[in-house]
């Protein structure tokens, strides 16, 4: 995360790359990082994992100690503190849970392999969850803007507190604050109230995911309004001033809303993929969940490239100009807000379809007929959909 939020500033300020190109490099980097989680989960289930752990351990141990010790100034009092850095005191042994190994009489315990799952169980646990999986990608596309263009927005705004200048990249602290506050309120207030009212310990995975998608859409709407105000100030000064006379705190709502959305959607997605997958494929399901992060960043890169190419035809620099003071980032945020709204509706349909399929009530063809070919039933369908997801 530290690399990602600083990389966009480095690419623009030090490498002098265009704004859109810098954003795409960051989102491609993040997308590739999370895409490899699926490969990592696959490898983790093979015995091969021990050898990769050994290789990784050797690479880390030979590098990180020297890197860490280089951070201490040998000509300063920090040198005496270096010995504390070199003391690995919290190492713990991993515990093997019951059922992780299969014991056969007369032979050594062997790992319980995920690949012994039947095709039927894989289809039930994985294929049916793909529509829900696909509709959560859009959240991470929205999230990608918070560590790219939103950081660039902050770099053009007034960020001083007295003589101290807040780094633009530090605005992501509101992500962390939003997550901590949201989870604290949810655990301490919402869950007890929900248990008293509904008799269940908190929201279901679909409810949390729906809330996360809704908050991210609201976050993009807040980003549109904030960018319109920032551009209005930039226009008054000729769009050429590096630091605009507008406080960076204007960006807090978009960071906070998307951060709060992450608290819900991350836990909701993780709960969904773990609880709905076959027992032997839980690690693979977690890897599948993490690919939504990867694809979200890649979708962001795709949208930026397309928008940059299309809008530059009608405008001199397009929506995503090299200098955002000369672009229309608010239009891009507005597009993401509309896509988020549409995606939320699609998620509701997919969630209802998944729930109905699990209960064996209505096939997909029946949903299509009921929802789209019978006008009088449309309102009833959406009301039933919402109640089903909330139940």
From TrEMBL:
* UniProt protein name: Uncharacterized protein
Q: Which family does it belong to?
A: Belongs to the major facilitator superfamily. Proton-dependent oligopeptide transporter (POT/PTR) (TC 2.A.17) family.
Provide a Gene Ontology MF annotation, just one. transmembrane transporter activity
Per UniProt, the keywords (alphabetical) are:
Membrane, Transmembrane, Transmembrane helix
* Matches recorded under PANTHER family: OLIGOPEPTIDE TRANSPORTER-RELATED (PTHR11654)
Task: Tell me which species this is from.
Answer: Carnegiea gigantea
| GO cellular-component term (any) | membrane
Instruction: List the transmembrane segments.
Output: 33-53, 130-151, 171-194, 206-226, 246-266, 287-311, 331-356
Q: Which InterPro entries match?
A: MFS_trans_sf, POT_fam
Which compartment or compartments is the protein found in? Answer: Membrane
């Amino acid at each position: 995360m530290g690399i990602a939020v600083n990389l966009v500033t480095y690419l623009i300020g030090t490498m002098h790359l265009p704004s859109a190109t810098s954003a795409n490099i960051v989102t491609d980097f993040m997308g590739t990082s999370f895409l490899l989680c699926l490969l990592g989960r696959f490898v983790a289930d093979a015995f091969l994992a021990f050898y990769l752990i050994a290789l990784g351990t050797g690479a880390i141990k030979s590098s990180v100690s020297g890197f860490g010790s280089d951070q201490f100034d040998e000509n300063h009092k920090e040198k005496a503190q270096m010995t504390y850095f070199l003391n690995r005191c919290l190492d713990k042994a991993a515990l093997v849970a019951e059922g992780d190994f299969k014991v056969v009489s007369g032979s050594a315990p062997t790992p319980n392999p995920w690949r012994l799952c039947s095709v039927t169980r894989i289809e039930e646990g994985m294929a049916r969850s793909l529509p829900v999986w696909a509709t959560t990608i859009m959240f991470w596309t929205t999230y990608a803007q918070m560590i790219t263009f939103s950081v660039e927005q902050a770099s053009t705004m007034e960020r001083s507190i007295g003589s101290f200048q807040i780094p633009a990249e530090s605005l992501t602290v509101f992500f962390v604050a939003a997550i901590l506050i949201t989870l604290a309120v949810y655990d301490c207030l919402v869950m007890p109230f929900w248990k008293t009212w509904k008799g269940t310990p908190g929201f279901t995975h679909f409810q949390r995911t729906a809330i996360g998608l809704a908050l991210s859409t609201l976050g993009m709407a807040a980003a549109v309004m904030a960018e319109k105000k920032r551009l209005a100030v930039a226009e008054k000064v000729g769009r050429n001033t590096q630091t605009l006379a507008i406080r960076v705190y204007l960006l807090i709502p978009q960071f906070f809303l998307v951060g709060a959305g992450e608290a819900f959607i991350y836990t909701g997605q993780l709960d969904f993929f773990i609880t709905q997958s076959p027992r032997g494929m839980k690690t693979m399901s977690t890897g599948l969940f993490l690919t939504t992060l990867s694809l979200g960043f890649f979708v962001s890169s795709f949208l930026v490239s397309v928008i940059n190419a299309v809008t530059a035809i009608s405008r001199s620099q397009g929506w995503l100009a090299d200098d955002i003071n000369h672009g229309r980032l608010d239009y891009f945020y507005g597009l993401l807000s509309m896509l988020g709204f549409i995606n939320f509706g699609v998620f509701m349909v997919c969630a209802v379809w998944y729930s109905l399929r699990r209960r064996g009530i209505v096939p997909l063809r029946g949903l299509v007929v009921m929802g789209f070919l019978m006008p009088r039933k449309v309102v009833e369908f959406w009301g039933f959909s919402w109640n089903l997801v909330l139940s």
